[in-house]
Amino acid sequence: SCSPDSLSERAGLFDLFLVDKDGGRELVGMTEPTGEDFPTEESGARGSEHRGLEQTGGFAGAAVRSRSGSSGEQTAEDDESDDKKCKEPRSLRLSINARERRRMHDLNDALDDLRSVIPYAHSPSVRKLSKIATLLLAKNYILMQAQALDEMRRLVAYLNQGQSVPVALPSAVASLQPPLGVYDHDEIAFPAQHIKRTHARWSTGSARALHKISTSPARWSTGSARAPHEFVRLPNDRSFQTCLRDFF
DNA sequence: TAGGCCATCTGGTCCT
DNA sequence: AGGACCAGATGGCCTA
């Protein structure tokens, strides 16, 4: 289930802030409440660890069946492998397993740390981000921050030159694109709050206009009952960008 | 029930 | 030699 193909296919589901291609099937932090399906320290990962330790104790773990299981036939390599296994002291194997478990737990702890600093709904009613979703969201968040920083630098430059501020807005709109070569989607998405805050600085009228565009059914393509409340999705094409410029 | 996600075990490879 | 890292295999849990 984790072949490179399926991974890249899954990765394609995520746009800026993890929006899928076909209509906002699922957005980060917008999953429906599921009760107790988010793992806790006791019932989740650590609980699984307990399972594993039990397996270790009885040496009935799944991996014992690996490798030669695909063909069902014992090959020369398998014989050699079995020979190695016999030569490997059991205590050594157990310590290697424990070390690997510890390593994976450290990795998961780091992922938890990452989840805690990226923007999505940290709520008990929202499912924990998967590993792949965490990494993709973090990447996109970094890219978005870089864009914002760039825009701010440009704005400061304009201010220093004594030019009018609204000049910066069209470029801000134009910069709202997925990183070139990474995404191939016809839509972009970003937090509505971000838009409203940003655009309100320049013109409340423009902000209203943008809000109108973003909430118009003709402009939306979510077509879903689960349309996001906190995210605005806009077509990401030239004509729309031109349309936006007309507003500002 | 299929599919997604995860933890674990394992053997191979690389690095110190 | 021993540890870190990696990827494949497998089974469990959960959700749609």
Write up this protein:
Helix content is 53%, strand content 4%. It contains nine helices and two strands. Helix 7 (192-202) runs antiparallel to helix 8. It starts with a helix and ends with a helix. The protein binds a DNA duplex (16 and 16 nucleotides) through helix 2, helix 3 and helix 4.
Summed up:
The protein has 248 residues and is mainly α. It contains 9 helices and 2 strands. The chain has helices spanning 4-11, 45-58, 76-87, 90-117, 131-160, 168-174, 192-202, 204-215, 238-247, and strands spanning 187-191, 231-235.
- How many DSSP-defined strands? 2
Enumerate the spans where pLDDT stays under 50 for 5 or more consecutive residues: 1-82, 164-237, 243-248
Discrete helix count: 9
> How would you sum up the global shape?
elongated
Query: How far do the termini sit from each other?
Result: 47 Å
Strand content: under 5%
Write the layout of secondary structure elements.
Blueprint: H1 4-11, H2 45-58, H3 76-87, H4 90-117, H5 131-160, H6 168-174, E1 187-191, H7 192-202, H8 204-215, E2 231-235, H9 238-247
Antiparallel strand pairs: 1-2
The structure holds a DNA duplex (16 and 16 nucleotides).
